[in-house]
Amino acid sequence: LSIAAPVIAPLFNVAASDQAQLVMAISLFVWAIPLWATVEIVTSMLRACKAFGPEIRLRLLWEQLMRLILAVLFWLAGLDTLALLLAHLVSLLLTVILALRALNNFVSLKRVWTTRLSGPVLHDLLLSGLSVLPSNILGRIFSDMPVIFLNLLLPGAAGANAAGLYSIARKLASIPQMVGTVFTHVVSPVAASSENRGLATLQTLYTFSIRLSLLLAVPTT
After folding, report:
1. Which of 68-77, 110-119, 198-207 has the lowest mean pLDDT?
2. How many whole angstroms separate alpha carbon 38 and alpha carbon 41?
3. Is 46 exposed, middle or buried (0-12, 13-18, 19+ CB in 10 A)?
4. C-alpha 116 chain-centroid distance
5. Secondary structure letter of residue 49 according to DSSP
6. C-beta of residue 23 within 8 angstroms of C-beta of residue 5
7. Integer Cα distance of 41 and 157 in angstroms
8. Top-confidence residue, 196 or 135
9. What CA dihedral angle connects 35, 149, 168 and 27, to 10 degrees?
10. Comparing 23 with 63, which gets the higher pLDDT?
11. Is 18 exposed, middle or buried (0-12, 13-18, 19+ CB in 10 A)?
12. Contact indicator for 12, 22 with CB cutoff of 8 Å
């Protein structure tokens, strides 16, 4: 995708002032994919180790807050549109580094790199990956396809502006969902590992999480 950026660029509608840097923007931004995938995998490993605090800090503080701070700093440095892309990439890179560092406290990274994968393990990995792929693809479609359609439907700067405004509105509207995300990341693994503790324990856990979610989510909304 990075190499094919000159072929991909004409498919998108952008303002005339951004046309010159569109190829560079695409060739840079596609590298968010491996970084984002690494963050997802490493934070899933942290969750499996029941390290919920480090994961939440990585997700909210480093991935989100650091991105905003970097975007402002890059913009002040005169980078304009590229400031957003670079902020996204740098914040993801920092999150990857910090996530690997946090994981090393629970699972030796040396052991991870040196462990050989057997046939049955690769088979299980493939099946588990394929099983979650449809829901992940649907999530990306609901999240990103409206932006793409808006951009393609309206020519030139109008398409870029519409897609940008929609993205901003969606981000603002999703702020309350951060509360739900935190609880999903914590409650689901705890509940899954508590199946032998009885229904009463799980009921108490979910009741508490729902009440606290409402207490935080309603004012945020």
Report:
1. 198-207
2. 5
3. buried
4. 29
5. T
6. yes
7. 37
8. 135
9. 30
10. 23
11. middle
12. yes
